[in-house]
Amino acid sequence: MAKGAANIIYGKQNKSLHKAFSSSGMPYSANRVWWQPVLKEAAGRQVAGLSDMTLGERYKLIQHFQKKGHSLHNPRIYKGLWGWKKGDPVVVVASAERPLEVPSEKQPMVDKIGAILAEQKKPWSYADGIAKKRFKVQVVEWLRVEDLEKVMQMLITYNRRHGGED
User: Fold this and answer.
1) Residues near 26 by Cβ (< 8 Å), separated by ≥ 6?
2) pLDDT tens profile 71-108
3) Which of 42, 60, 147, 166 reaches 20 to 30 Å from 70, CA-CA?
4) CA-CA-CA-CA torsion for 120, 122, 124, 127, nearest 10 degrees?
5) How far apart are CA 8 and CA 80, in angstroms?
6) Burial of 76 (0-12, 13-18, 19+ CB in 10 A)
7) What DSSP line would sit under 143-160, residue for residue?
């Protein structure tokens, strides 16, 4: 299980969003009223503020800033967390659920990791554990491409040593 996945994603989104607001010269905390139309556009509804937005709506807001040229991290969101927002009960997502979207350059490695895990009868949380221990990243899909390759190699090596095939 990914413990507190919603809270982890929310925190990462907050860092990205506040970075975008600050680099625009209009920090959110001092200019909330000015940002309301942008929040409403991203959410597709009237919202009281960032904490009133779901993780999915915040994801769209970060994409909006990325299109404007901001270099921001936009963490992937598990299927069951798109509607979660601050104040909702903490959501724990089953490790078998994976993010909806993975960048195309990562997809082949993520698929291979999934196949190796299935062959070894290990849950996705096993790969997440490697990502957390080795790279200090909570979810394997959030790794950089070169780090995903390392995780894939670790799993292949483990598989060879324990009698499996590549």
Assistant:
1) 34, 35
2) 888 887 776 788 999 988 877 555 445 654 677 788 88
3) 147
4) -70
5) 14
6) middle
7) S-HHHHHHHHHHHHHHHH
